[in-house]
From TrEMBL:
Zinc finger (C3H1-type): 303-331
UniProt keyword annotation of Secreted present: no
C3H1-type domain mapped to chain residues: 303-331
GO biological process: snRNA 3'-end processing
InterPro entries: CAF1_poly(A)_ribonucleases, RNase_CAF1, RNaseH-like_sf, RNaseH_sf, Znf_CCCH, Znf_CCCH_sf
PROSITE patterns: ZF_C3H1
Alphabetized Pfam families for the sequence: CAF1 (PF04857)
GO molecular function: 3'-5'-RNA exonuclease activity; snRNA binding; zinc ion binding
One GO cellular component, as annotated: Cajal body
This protein's record includes keyword Isomerase: no
Species this chain originates from: Hesseltinella vesiculosa
Disordered: annotated segments: 274-298
Family that this chain belongs to: Belongs to the CAF1 family.
Protein's recorded name: Ribonuclease CAF1
């Protein structure tokens, strides 16, 4: 499925700054995801030590892109008693001007997923990470191009702080740490200081859909693509993508109270043509031919009885990547786990694309991208807040999932930790 989004680069960032901030100010929630050059392969159970090791990685590696999905919840349900949400998707390409390291395995994964590194370095928005006081080479020049993205995030921070807009992530500790290091300040030396900063910076709090899926919804498998796929099937079994484009259930006359619709808002700017990133702008007849060919291909593939890769099915990752001889097909995995049939899957897929003819706005999707991951996070979150008890969702606020630990990271004030000097300076600058 393709999801419309606005791509923000160094070429159009200045012209989109005001529309972006206006859209953010209207959001009830903001889903965030990022792509970066390295992660910590060693996962220490002692959280303080883990934080130190994560800081070492993040301060020597780089952010490549980040996606924002802005979620607005409508006050009234529609005639079919569906809770409705408007979402706007944005992806920012960023180019770190500092020297940084890359993790070969992570780079291979991103390359196989379709990330265009050439485009990152050609048109990515330039930035220098770390604290402002460290940027002495141009600290007195407010018009320096590398300051534009930082000023944008300062404005975003003021909006989400003053309006108390929650940030939504999926297994998002690294995403939040990269965000802090890239656009706010050098990461504090101690975990408690970092948590104290986050508590003050984002008073609306954080929701982690991985924590919601495991600790609240009781899911055993919780990687993002799986959670999204399952929410998509359970929440909208007859999903349609309309030419708005929008996502809405098909026409069941007895829609349950827990069903909902997610409408995609218009693009802030058209996506430039790029041969590496296909767009869905073909004619309706061409789409029908493609769907017919795809259905035939899928049927033939299923006849070969390829085994499902157990590692990918359980964790969303396979060390063999695209070279794995077994299937990573999410539909096959969900068919098996949910006990659905091939015909049911085909019906869902067909309805996914019924109304894709001649969309008025560009639409594109890579296999793995920050804008689509942010959208999947947003979709799962909309499903959870619609179907889970309200108190259970509220209890999950400010609990970020920690890998291989049974307890989350709680974002809350502590008598034993004080905010960093960097945050205190930034706070004085933003709220003089």
């Amino acid at each position: 499925m393709s999801v419309s989004y606005t791509e923000v680069t160094n070429d159009n960032f200045a012209s989109l700054l005001d529309p972006l901030l206006a859209a953010i100010a209207e959001a009830d929630y903001i889903a965030f995801d990022s792509e970066f050059s390295g992660f910590c392969s060693k996962i220490t159970k002692h959280m303080e030590q883990r934080y130190v090791e994560l800081c070492q990685v993040i301060q020597t590696h780089s952010l490549f892109s980040f996606g924002l999905t802005l979620i607005s919840r409508k006050n009234k349900t529609d005639k079919k008693n569906r809770t409705r949400f408007d979402v706007t998707n944005v992806e920012f390409l960023t180019s770190n001007q500092n020297t940084f390291q890359v993790d070969p395995k992570n780079m291979r994964f991103l390359a196989e997923s379709g990330l265009d590194f050439g485009r990152i370095f050609r048109v990515g928005i330039p930035f220098h990470d770390g604290s402002l006081l460290d940027l002495t080479s141009y600290g007195d020049d407010p018009d320096h191009p590398t300051l534009l993205i930082r000023r944008f995030w300062f404005s975003v921070l003021k909006i989400v702080h003053d309006k108390k807009i929650p940030l939504v992530v999926h297994n998002g500790l690294l995403d939040v740490m990269y965000l802090y290091q890239s656009f706010f300040a050098t990461l504090p030396a101690k975990l408690g200081t970092f948590v104290a900063d986050l508590d003050l910076m984002f008073p609306g709090g954080f929701y982690d859909t991985k924590y919601l899926s495991t600790a609240v919804a009781g899911e055993q498998v919780s990687y993002l693509a799986y959670v999204y796929g399952k929410c998509l099937r359970l929440g909208q079994p007859l999903l349609k993508i309309k030419t708005k484009p929008s996502l809405a259930p098909a026409d069941p006359t007895d829609a349950p109270a827990s069903s909902f619709a997610v409408d995609l808002s218009g693009l802030l700017a058209p996506i430039p043509a790029n041969p590496c990133r296909p767009t869905t702008t073909e004619s309706a007849s061409k789409k029908r031919r493609k769907r017919a060919a795809a259905n035939t291909s899928n049927t033939q593939a299923k006849k070969t009885k390829l085994d499902i890769c157990s590692q990918y099915a359980s964790h969303g990752y396979c060390r063999l990547g695209n070279g794995c001889p077994m299937t990573h097909d999410m539909d096959r995995i969900l068919d098996r786990d949910l006990g659905t049939t091939d015909s049911t899957t085909a019906k869902v897929q067909a309805n996914d694309n019924d109304d894709l003819a001649d969309p008025p706005m560009s639409s594109a999707k890579r296999l793995h991208s920050s804008h689509f991951d942010a959208y999947m996070t947003a979709y799962a979150f909309c499903y959870f807040i619609t179907t889970l008890p309200e108190q259970d969702v509220q209890d999950a606020l400010n609990k970020i999932n920690l890998m291989r630990l049974d307890i989350p990271l709680r974002i809350m004030p502590s008598h034993y930790s004080s905010p960093s000097q960097s945050w205190q300076r930034l706070k004085s600058f933003l709220w003089p």
